[in-house]
């Protein structure tokens, strides 16, 4: 018995059968009135008994049989109330023992096995029949459903501690019967980052391995392999389903598990919210002040859910490959080092979940809620993260190569040193995100919002930045060699100091107020569609000599189109000569 339960047994409401009132809103509202009414009746009975006794003493001649009966009844009333309370308490103790017995029986059934016969061969190669013990799935499934009913009834009838104990049993059952060591590993070796001083041969090999591991055009790519994984055993999936569909009363019981006596329990994942950063006008940048205000609110909310003291689902180091957890309620869950490759987590709630070093390669996380989740060093290569919510999440050193993050919301996320090579970040929301040292080589940032993002020394070689919002972004020391930068939005607060733009393509860019160095301009390739600082125009003395003085076409099969001329310049910068404008 816990200290809290022991204190409850010493209280007056306990003896008047008030401590275990149902958790329904009606019972909660009526409980104080019932308590006051019971106490008033008890006090009235005592007062009436005293008055009648005084009358008997003062006027003994006036006593008749009726008065005696009334006196006896009034004197007996408190004793009857007390007797009823004691009887009710004895019944409650009996019920508690019965529930403990039901839980014990269900746990015993979870270990049930049955014998099946399989065919094998002996030492001489002759066929033999072998008896093999296997889990009795039917019996175990029934035991799991019995435990679920006990947990639900527990919160209905006021014994919420049984709910948490059942959740602990289910989690332990999954951990013991589906350990991470039984997971299947991806057959190809890890795709290592490109070395800093890689030559052309190493770059080609690196690109080949990337395509083999992540491209749908190749067999056994990470996503297809993960989606082909076999799901958990039936009883394991059943236990996961029970954990995933906990109702609001059960969640409140989990919050109450560590709540101080007298304090209202608070399941913070339902009650604590933050105002999302508005989408705003697509043509306009979100003001830096609005982003910073949003980040402060987000940080405050994240600290609240991280500090949640209640019970958390504990599935650490489990093998959940291919599990169906779509829409699952796993807020604040412990999933460190869990194997979730190929798992179906679309629409799942994982706010504030602890998922450090979890493996989610090829998992389906479409529209999953993962705000404030801890994913330090997690593996999400090839994962389907379209429209996922990752605001304020911790993704430091996470592996997300080849992941689909189209329209993902990652404002304020910590992506320092994360691996996002060849990831699709089209229209992703990354305002205020920390991307210091992140690997974004070959990634697509089509119309991505990266206002006020920290991209200090990020690796963005060969990335595609088409209409990317970079107002106020910190790109100091970023590596943007060979990047294709078209219509990207920059302003006077965009920091490009020491950014390497060697071989980058610049088209339809406005650098009129951007602090960009002359070396960065001359080391890149552009045409007359670019507005340079100081309103430098084609034909001026400081116009880059290898830049065509007219706007090259794009998207047509022509030797003078932009991609062809860009590649020709990169192949031989010294010998390259820009083409003359077409004849009028």
Distance between the termini: 93 Å
Give the total of beta strands. 5
Low-confidence stretches: 1-24
- Our Rg estimate from Cα atoms comes to 35 Å
The secondary-structure element order is: HHHHEEHHHHHHHHEEEHH
Shape: elongated
What would you call the quaternary organization? single chain
The computed structural class is mainly alpha
Order of neighbouring strands in the sheet with most strands: 3-4-5
Approximate helicity band: 25-40%
Kindly state the mean pLDDT as a whole number?
86
Largest sheet geometry: 3 strands, parallel
Total of helices: 14
List keywords for this structure.
three-stranded parallel sheet, 584 residues, mainly alpha, two-stranded antiparallel sheet, disordered N terminus, 14 helices
């Amino acid at each position: 018995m816990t200290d809290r339960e022991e204190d409850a047994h010493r209280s007056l409401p306990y003896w008047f059968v008030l401590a275990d009132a149902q958790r329904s809103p009606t019972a909660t509202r009526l409980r104080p009135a019932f308590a006051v009414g019971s106490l008033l009746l008890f006090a009235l009975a005592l007062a009436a008994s005293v008055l009648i006794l005084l009358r008997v003493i003062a006027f003994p001649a006036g006593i008749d049989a009726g008065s005696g009966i009334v006196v006896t009844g009034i004197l007996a009333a408190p004793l009857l109330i007390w007797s009823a309370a004691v009887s009710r308490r004895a019944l409650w103790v009996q019920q508690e023992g019965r529930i403990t017995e039901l839980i014990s029986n269900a746990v015993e059934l979870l270990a049930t096995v049955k014998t099946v016969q399989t065919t094998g061969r002996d030492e001489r190669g002759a066929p033999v029949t072998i008896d093999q013990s296997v889990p009795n799935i039917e019996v175990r499934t029934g035991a799991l459903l019995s435990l679920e009913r006990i947990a639900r009834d527990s919160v209905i009838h006021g014994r919420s501690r049984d709910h948490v104990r059942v959740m602990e049993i289910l989690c332990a059952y999954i951990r013991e019967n589906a350990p991470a060591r039984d997971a299947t590993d991806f057959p190809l070796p890890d795709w290592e980052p490109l070395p800093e001083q890689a030559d052309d041969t190493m770059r080609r090999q690196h690109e080949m391995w990337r395509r083999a591991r992540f491209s749908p055009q190749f067999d056994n790519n990470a996503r297809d392999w993960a989606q082909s994984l076999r799901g958990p055993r039936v009883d394991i999936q059943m236990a996961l389903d029970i954990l995933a569909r906990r109702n609001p009363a059960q969640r409140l019981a989990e919050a109450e598990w560590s709540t101080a006596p007298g304090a209202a329990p608070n399941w913070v994942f339902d009650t604590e919210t933050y105002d999302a950063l508005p989408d705003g006008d697509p043509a306009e940048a979100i003001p830096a002040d609005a982003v910073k205000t949003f980040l402060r609110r987000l940080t405050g909310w994240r600290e609240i859910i991280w500090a949640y003291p209640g019970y958390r689902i504990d599935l650490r180091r489990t093998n959940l490959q291919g599990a169906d957890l779509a829409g699952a309620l796993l807020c604040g869950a412990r999933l460190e080092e869990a194997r979730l490759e190929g798992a179906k987590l679309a629409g799942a709630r994982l706010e504030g979940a602890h998922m450090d070093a979890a493996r989610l390669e090829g998992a389906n996380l479409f529209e999953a809620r993962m705000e404030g989740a801890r994913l330090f060093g997690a593996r999400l290569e090839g994962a389907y993260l379209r429209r996922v919510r990752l605001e304020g999440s911790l993704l430091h050193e996470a592996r997300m190569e080849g992941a689909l993050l189209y329209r993902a919301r990652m404002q304020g996320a910590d992506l320092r040193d994360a691996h996002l090579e060849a990831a699709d970040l089209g229209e992703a929301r990354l305002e205020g995100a920390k991307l210091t040292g992140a690997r974004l080589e070959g990634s697509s940032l089509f119309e991505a919002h990266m206002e006020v993002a920290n991209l200090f020394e990020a690796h963005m070689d060969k990335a595609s930045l088409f209409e990317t919002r970079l107002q106020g972004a910190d790109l100091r020391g970023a590596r943007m060699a060979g990047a294709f930068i078209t219509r990207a939005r920059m302003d006077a607060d965009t920091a490009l100091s020491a950014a390497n733009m060697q071989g980058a393509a610049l088209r339809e860019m406005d650098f009129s107020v951007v602090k960009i160095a002359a070396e960065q301009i001359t080391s890149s390739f552009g045409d007359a569609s670019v507005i340079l600082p100081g309103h430098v125009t084609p034909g001026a003395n400081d116009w880059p000599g290898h830049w065509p003085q007219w706007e090259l076409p794009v998207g047509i099969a022509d030797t003078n189109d932009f991609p062809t001329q860009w590649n020709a310049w990169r192949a031989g910068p010294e010998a390259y000569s820009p083409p003359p404008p077409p004849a009028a």
